[in-house]
Design a protein that fits this description.
Length: 144
């Protein structure tokens, strides 16, 4: 396991946080570890990942809505994603190749990973989703 993943795992143990499952990717040169969990908003459990490897980056990724993109909502959804991405500095919103609506945060970890920094970002993500999830879902379901 890479050093950042070890530090995050230790942080979770020290804080008695049991909501993550960890998976180490076999044969990966960067020694990637994926911590899986979920964020609950509006009664929905959104799959959430913390991806840690030997690079200077740490990724936090949330699947807001699977198969969100449809021909009927394409224009409005792409417009909404673009507006939100340009308005919120820490977040990148995008639609992946399967049309899933994703939120991603890339943190730079130059020296030592601090679990509190990741949890502070989770607090921002949760606040953002609590304020915006319904707006996204309204846009996704229009025309479906």
């Amino acid at each position: 396991m890479n050093k950042k993943a070890e530090a995050f795992k230790k942080y979770l143990e020290e804080k008695d946080i049991k909501s993550f499952e960890v998976e180490e990717l076999e044969g990966d040169e960067q020694k990637t570890a994926v911590f899986r969990s979920y964020i609950t908003t509006e009664g929905q459990q959104l799959p959430t990942l913390v991806i840690l490897d030997e690079s200077i980056f740490a990724l936090l990724r949330v699947q807001i809505a699977p198969r969100a993109l449809a021909e009927e909502n394409q224009l409005e959804l792409l417009k909404k994603v673009n507006e939100e991405t340009s308005a919120y500095k820490p977040f990148k919103l995008y639609l992946n190749k399967d049309g899933d609506l994703m939120l991603e945060v890339c943190l730079v970890i130059e020296e030592e990973l601090k679990g509190d920094s990741i949890y502070a970002m989770f607090a921002l993500i949760i606040d953002y989703l609590n304020d915006n999830y319904r707006k996204f879902m309204k846009c996704i379901w229009q025309g479906k």
